[in-house]
Design brief:
The protein has 531 residues and is α/β, with parallel strands linked by helices. The protein is built from 20 helices and 17 strands. The protein has two domains: 227 residues, Rossmann fold, CATH 3.40.50; 255 residues, tm_1862 like domain (pyruvate-formate lyase- activating enzyme), CATH 3.80.30. Helix 12 runs parallel beside helix 14. It binds iron/sulfur cluster. Iron/sulfur cluster (SF4) binds next to loops.
Length: 531
């Protein structure tokens, strides 16, 4: 195909710049996702959230969700010429008169998620994820004026926000929403907007066939269904190209039922070791030095029911570790109840397998404590996180899990949720006591503001902060400021980030930390005066 023949890619998959950027490690990506407009845009675009590398207009690395949609479409017979993952900056080059669908993924399209609402309350300014999404949608609306033949569909983990605020979706120019896992739905959608191909199918000659078919349909766009529900997919395809931060899916869903969580009702399924290793190899083959094995509870990998399967967890870690050229292996979440039940010796073996061959002293794992009050957590649908232990043991279990992870060599990253519905002073005192007990340990603690995923509940806001909330916040960040610089340095070193870049990031991080200290002090004073 010559440049003059090019009339756009029929199905384009993209994401806001926070999701579709070039991050060396998961920690870098999480830091970028926590920034507000208080961080200068030039610093964000150049250093914190640098642009994704491209081949032409195609992203060389992309969020896992988009890579899975791409793989599902290709498996369904759509050709490489019909599907592309494109970063926001390259959209103008990829869209043309034959473009029929632009599918966007966003983690926090309206900034209503717990992370963004906390950050914008404390650090001032608007979160970058919704800001950059709005920027991208404005660009798409502009392109649509000259090329009205494509639909814009929004999906991703934050799509519930637009589902509850349809006016905001219309303002952005979104034609349709896709909720939940979407590998099967994207194929149905693509088939709805792309007319059936002439005989010969979507194979080697697909480009010519698609061209003819699309030419005949430009005036006649089929309507999309009003709301596309994703749900659970039976087949999860293998990725064809590298993901951002080397993210590889290990298990899907959780199903433990916490009312503040979008996947509370999706039972956990585990992917086969062979598929996981294949996805890791695709990333390493594409130049990644680190991967991140994601799951809502890595320690539950391979478990058939409530019993854990440590041997299967270690089998997976060993298989991934054998990948040539792989340095850092990061995990994201583990459940407290699983840590408590996982044998200590096997936990140490797991840690040593993950860091084998690299200098990596701060391998972190996210632990969802949410509140040290088991009663409050259970009242909010979090009983599944606590079981099979009694609710009243929750605070002790949380401390035990932290200690056990530290003893095995991990650095726990604890999350707390402030303002859960029904939260009382006693609950807060219990959480404060938990945080105080962690002061001398090597961990981080991130308190987040409660953000409901259904419109009937009230979001926790800055004005709701009491002196007790502030005390939890202040203590948690005193711990974070102590450990975060070393964690960052260590993670980036483990992933092979060049020394100079690490030094620059440490400098920028130090400045940001001073700014946060000052803002927290100022806001806490303000809140004390108004209490
Ligand atoms: S345990 Fe975690 S992932 Fe599972 S439902 Fe609760 S909050 Fe969601």
């Amino acid at each position: 195909m010559t440049q003059t023949d090019f009339a756009g890619i029929p199905i384009i998959l993209t994401a806001d710049r926070i999701l579709l950027a070039d991050y060396p490690t998961l920690l870098d990506g999480m830091t970028a996702a926590s920034q507000t407009s208080g961080t200068p845009a030039w610093l964000m675009r150049r250093f914190v959230s640098p642009p994704a590398p491209v081949d032409g207009f195609r992203a060389r690395k992309a969020p896992l969700g988009l890579r899975l949609l791409e793989a599902a479409l290709r498996e369904a017979g759509f050709s490489a010429a019909e599907v592309a993952v494109v970063p926001p900056e390259e959209l103008r080059k990829a869209i043309g008169e034959r473009t029929r669908l632009v599918a966007i993924s966003s983690g926090d399209p309206l900034g209503l998620g717990m992370n963004d609402s906390t950050m914008s309350a404390i650090a001032d300014g608007l979160p970058y994820a919704p800001l950059w999404l709005a920027e991208m949608c404005a660009q798409l609306r502009e392109i649509k004026k000259g090329l009205p033949n494509f639909k814009i569909i929004l999906g991703g983990p934050g799509v519930w926000q637009v589902e509850q605020n349809p006016a905001a979706g219309r303002q952005l120019g979104i034609d349709d929403l896709c909720c939940g896992y979407a590998e099967e739905k994207i194929v149905a959608l693509a088939r709805a907007v792309l007319p059936p191909l002439p005989r010969g199918g979507r194979g080697g000659e697909a480009l010519t066939n698609a061209k003819a078919a699309l030419d005949s349909s430009e005036e006649n766009l089929p309507p999309l269904p009003p709301l596309v529900k994703g749900g659970r997919n039976n087949i999860i395809p293998s990725i064809l190209a590298p993901t951002n931060m080397g993210v590889v899916e290990v298990s899907r869903g959780c199903g433990l039922g916490c009312s503040f969580c979008t996947i509370r009702a999706q039972p956990m399924i585990h992917l086969p070791v062979e598929k996981i290793v294949r996805d890791v190899e695709v990333n390493v083959g594409g130049g990644a030095t680190s991967v991140c094995l994601i799951s809502e509870d890595f320690l539950r990998y391979g478990a058939e029911n409530v019993e854990l399967a440590p041997a299967r967890v270690l089998e997976l870690a060993r298989a991934v570790r054998r990948t040539k050229g792989l340095r850092l292996i990061q995990l994201d979440h583990v459940n407290i109840s699983s840590v408590v039940r996982f044998p200590a010796a096997e936990l140490k073996v797991l840690h040593d397998l993950l860091v084998a061959g690299v200098t990596h002293d701060y391998l972190w794992m996210n632990l969802g404590v949410e509140s040290a009050s088991g009663a409050l957590l259970a009242k909010n649908g979090g009983l599944g996180k606590i079981l099979p232990h009694p609710v009243e043991n929750w605070e002790r279990l949380c401390s035990e899990a932290v200690d056990k992870l530290i003893a095995a060599g991990f650095t726990p990253m604890v999350s707390l949720v402030l303002g859960l519905p029904g939260e009382k002073e006693d609950d807060l005192r219990q959480t404060l006591r938990f945080v105080q007990a962690q002061r001398a340990k090597r961990l981080t603690i991130f308190p987040l503001f409660y953000a409901p995923i259904n419109s009937s509940a009230k979001a926790f806001q800055f004005d709701d902060m009491t002196p007790l909330h502030w005390e939890i916040f202040r203590l948690a960040y005193a711990i974070n400021f102590k450990w975060m610089p070393a964690m960052f340095w260590d993670n980036q070193r483990g992933a092979g980030v060049p020394w100079l870049k690490r030094v620059l990031i440490q400098g920028a991080g130090w400045l940001r930390m001073q700014d946060w200290r000052w803002r927290m002090w100022k806001r806490a004073r303000l809140s004390e005066k108004t209490c």
